[in-house]
Specification:
The chain is of the alpha+beta class. It contains four helices and six strands, in the order βαβαβββαβα. The relative contact order is 0.23. The mean pLDDT is 94. It binds a DNA duplex through loops.
DNA sequence: GCCAACGTTGGC
DNA sequence: GCCAACGTTGGC
């Protein structure tokens, strides 16, 4: 059963992993490891191959939506949680019963210009957007089709 | 670097 | 089950 692609937004600090890092990666792909938030994990579990993702740079200058990626592999156990040497090691997770999942994404395109947070604020059609909610820290979040359309239109300017 | 907002942990 | 303490996120 296929369904219409859903839209998402994923945050990354460019100092850790930027859209240029994704562009340089083999086959423009990466696994999205290190998510340690249940809500974000649950959204990743809902992702299906072909779903579209806004790539967002957080703690950046400027913080901005910088491009589009797509889901190429659905949720599977995040093995970095099993590795005591990994920054995101979580002893509560183990291979028999993994707590944390990741997905694989592939770069679709980098925008010609970053769509900064500043620009997104104040656009009426985006007033409900999770990213713009005060105090929102969710690193993986759904995006409404209407929001997706507005942002892609901004990217084309 | 500051700090508000948030999620998680753990004592009770 | 409550909630204070703590660690983290992320804009500024």
């Amino acid at each position: 059963m296929s369904r219409k692609p859903c839209y998402w937004l994923m945050k990354s600090e460019p100092s850790a992993f930027s859209i240029d890092d994704l562009a340089r990666a083999p086959r423009h792909m990466t696994c999205w490891d290190g998510v340690r938030n249940y809500q974000a994990r649950n959204f990743m579990r809902e992702m299906r191959v072909g779903d579209q993702v806004l790539f967002y740079h957080s703690s950046a200058e400027p913080s901005a939506v910088v491009g589009v990626a797509e889901v190429v592999k659905e949720a599977y156990p995040d093995s970095t949680a099993f590795d005591p040497k990994d920054k995101h090691y979580d002893p509560s997770s183990n291979p028999a019963q993994p707590t944390w999942d990741m997905v694989d994404i592939r770069l679709v395109r980098k925008f010609h210009r970053p769509i900064a947070l500043d620009e997104l604020r104040g656009i009426p059609g985006l007033s409900q957007m999770e990213l713009l909610r005060k105090g929102s820290r969710l690193s993986v979040q759904p995006v409404r089709p209407s929001e997706w359309a507005i942002i892609l239109k901004l990217a084309a300017k």
